[in-house]
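S.,

As promised, the DAU run. Input:
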Amino acid sequence: MTGGAGFIGSNYLHWMVSRHPEIRFVNLDLLTYAGNLANIESISAEANYEFVQGDITDSALVEMLFQTHGFDTVVHFAAESHVDRSIEDPLSFVRTNVIGTTILLETARTFWKASDSMSLCRFHHVSTDEVYGSLGTTGQFLESTPYAPRSPYAASKASSDHFVRAFAETYGLPILITNCSNNFGPYQFPEKLIPLTIVNAVSEQAIPVYGRGDNIRDWLFVLDHCEALELVLQRGTPGQTYLIGGGNEWSNLDLVNKILDRVDESLSRPEGTGRALVSFVDDRPGHDFRYSVNTDRIQAELDWRPSHSLDEALELTVTWYLENQDWIECVKDESYMRYYDRMYGDRISNKDDG
Ligand code: NAD
Ligand code: DAU
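Predicted complex:
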């Protein structure tokens, strides 16, 4: 798998590694600002798990890993994932999301075509509902909705999806694509709306709400997402796309207020303390108005639906952030970036020795 030190990838490892002792997991992650080894500290010593720091755009490394491990499955999470950063620096999104994905595809194709069991292999590409563009007040995205990405991030993910599908059509690569809505839960980097709201509320800092806060997102608890990803990998039809959503559409302002009330309650602060922190700021350029995904296919084919209500999942998430202040502090002071040196100092010196 790629990107397992990030938010969804680390939750996926927590979900999968102990459940599947028969699978050997190799986690290839560059550890960009979004990768945090503390997210996966508790599984780092598991016998069926190994971490490799490296870049998915490094084709020699990816090839060496295929050669060494003989992978029959790739689950691909690694990406630049933040829309606002893509507006500042679109090229790094092209590099990782488009070129990196294509390098993984090309390496998998080369290795798998040489084996007799290509049909048993799987390339599972984790993607986003943002590839379909922006909805008005009604309607839902379907798997068949034409792509219409509107941000550099969404365009790079759309492009990566096209490459994945092209490798299936052209070379017969057994692929799976999942396009999910906004995830939230433990270990999410506090640049995204929900963790940013909780973290700023705790330290009583302003909560920036873009525009009037009336944009709508569908919120999916990350562990419900991981359960869906496991089912898709185990029983999904090769070549197929599956939409995954939480069925929880909220305007940003309503959601932020709901979280702030919960934080006030948990910290026994006077009602309204959190809401007073809301600060309306300039809107995101090209801000998609609404996302909503139709999950009929995954429900019918794989009998998946989210297990957590929004309230339960928010409660778990707020509690996790309140109980993990040290994780937040390490992210804030950036000391989490030095975690690799502490955990894998030997490997770094081995690397230096060539
Ligand atoms: P994240 O930003 O939290 O983590 C990304 C991970 O990828 C990090 O660990 C980072 O170090 C790693 N990475 C980045 N560039 C790399 C490279 N060149 N080589 C190797 N590793 C690299 O992302 P996330 O929110 O966990 O998202 C995971 C995937 O799910 C992404 O593909 C994203 O597009 C998709 N997705 C996310 C959401 C969401 O709400 N977070 C929703 C839909 C789809
Ligand atoms: O829909 C899936 C996508 O969801 C994923 O593909 C992306 O990787 C993920 O980042 C997320 O994209 P969004 O842009 O929807 O997420 P973000 O948390 O950045 O913003 C959620 C909404 O909140 C969006 O309408 C913008 C708004 N927002 C965001 C931030 C960071 C604010 O109002 N203020 C903020 O400070």
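The radius of gyration is 20 Å. The pocket of nicotinamide-adenine-dinucleotide (ligand 1) is lined by residues 2-3, 5-9, 28-32, 34-35, 55-57, 77-81, 96, 100, 126-128, 157, 180, 182-183, 189 (CB under 6 Å).

- D.
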